[in-house]
Write a structure and sequence with these properties.
mainly alpha; 6 helices
Length: about 190
């Protein structure tokens, strides 16, 4: 996996967290940069950890499914991508009572919920020749930046931007899955 693919994957993995962060930003009364950075750090650490967990789980099974690895990665990424695109079309509820800061455990729960896809991607990556630490670091840092930005964007623009970003992330995941399948099927 080259640097461009890792960058696209990191961006795609961070878009659902960005969408959630926009929602978090809209749910707060004028969030400050300190709250945006705190939220970004929590999401980034979780998003960097989950692909490594998925990779470890997938590595246990990799010897048994080597012949099907590209199909597994394709199906996982396509499924996640379709799920994200579908999520982009869902409407979200508007919170009436806006706090100034979100609780730590609420952010952890939200961060974990948005990182399940990264865990599934980690499982798929176990079947490919990748350095999971580099990929996880890229995902974590990108998520940190995107979530920090998302909280501040939420302050300014509202939840509509977050849904579009989630849809774009889903399309990117489907593209990566298709590219992986294409590379394996056309390899000589």
């Amino acid at each position: 996996m080259n640097i461009a693919a890792i960058s696209v994957l990191a961006f795609a993995m961070s878009t659902d967290a960005f969408a959630a962060a926009v929602g978090k930003g809209t749910a707060l009364v004028q969030p400050r940069w300190s709250e945006a950075l705190r939220t970004g750090a929590i999401f980034g650490v979780i998003e960097a950890t989950t692909p490594m967990v998925g990779w470890a789980l997938g590595s246990v099974a990799s010897d048994y499914v080597k012949a099907w690895d590209h199909w597994i990665a394709f199906v996982l990424l396509m499924g996640l991508g379709l799920h994200m695109v579908a999520g982009a079309f869902k409407t979200s509820e508007v919170e009436v009572d806006k706090p100034r800061r979100h609780g730590f455990w609420l952010l952890v729960a939200t961060g974990f919920a948005t990182s399940i896809d990264a865990m599934a991607v980690g499982v798929g990556l176990a079947f490919l020749d990748v350095n999971i630490l580099v990929v996880a670091l890229a995902i974590g840092l990108t998520t940190f930046a995107m979530v920090t930005l998302g909280v501040m964007v939420g302050r300014l623009l509202g939840a509509v931007v977050g849904r579009w970003a989630e849809g774009l992330g889903g399309v990117l995941l489907m593209g990566i899955g298709s590219l992986i399948l294409f590379e394996h099927l056309t390899a000589v």
